[in-house]
Amino acid sequence: MKNYFQFKELGTSYKTEFTAGLTTFLAMAYILFVNPATLGDAGMDEGAVFVATALAAAVGSLIMGLLAKYPVVLAPGMGLNAFFAYSVVLGSGIPWETALAGVLASGLIFIVLTLTGIREKIINAIPSNLKMAVGAGIGLFIAFIGLTNAGIVVDDEATLVALGAITSPNVLLAIFGLAISVILLTKGIKAGIFYGMIVTAIVGMFFGLVPVPQGINDIVGSVPSIAPTFGQAFMHFGDIFTIEMLVVILTFLFVDFFDTAGTLMAVASQAGLVKDNKLPRAGKALFADSAATVVGATVGTSTTTSFVESTAGVGVGGRTGFTAIVASGFFVLALFFSPLLGIVTSAVTAPALIIVGVMMANQLKNVEWDQFEIAVPAFFTVLMMPLTNSIATGIAVGFIFYPITMIVKGRAKEINPIMYGLFVIFVLYFIFLN
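Below the sequence we write its predicted structure tokens.
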């Protein structure tokens, strides 16, 4: 095992890798509760989604560790789960079973792109400014969902949105949770989001806002049935062949594609694994990510992707795939803690959504705002996601404006032909959507 993962060459040990795996797991354990709550809003069984989340994370991380040998842990991604629930299912009225089939299709396409090497061409086709805008826009979208779930922002007939009743107990609990999580993360505590949820839940119990466990059975229990979601993606695969679902699949694929590439580079760079500005075994890492998405869709969850929280494990010394394998084991153990879903209310999970949004919004700094032809499509990409409650719409509007502003500016030669194809697809998307 030591030779396979090159412990000696990378200066690590079993103890260090175990600590790194546990650290990464704790840093991203919030997804076990936030994902079921998010997909539950789309009508999915929360118990089944909890199991699917843990299984997708466990299998995906195991493949990443054994095949790519990277200390990168996977799980259903934030942003894509929100897109799945609030844009595709609730916004467009697409059944969640069909949406799962779309996730499955995107995973299969991702595998083909990885095995054929086409991924490089696609990465180069999308301008970096739009990649950054998409990531930041998703961050604002997630934060907005968190604010509304917490009751901090509410619907208003006169102004569309307004400040909620911030003196109500549940809203105050969410605000408290947000403050605690922010303080922990500011202090450099990597698992601040997870610990913040624990503290918030305990305070909520003290004030009677969160159910108090009455015994061990309210904490540890049997694994919920996965029957409500298992295999639904395959059963409804024939429903994805529409223009609307094509855009949905492209969005799943696009966001996962670049989110994965960025996360892998960030984690590998921090671990000192990048050689000559290239990522060794990049194809295997991307295959692990796409295979995890297929597994996740099969068992019943939205797109599974590499988590940037993996840097928490790298920060304590994780350097090999054994870190990911250890985290995988903890996700398997987590299967027996499903009763805690009853304790994790929206007031407890909302701060996690808001903080993840903050983290994703940092990509705004990489957009070239001083160039108007770039600023316009980037701005509309970011703005339209929260305002239309749709990640796909934000991407579509930005990708339509990009070739227009670039051509008018006289920079048509800089536009990759693939962008013109996407321009046509997104124009058709709005036509057929109406």
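The mean pLDDT is 89.
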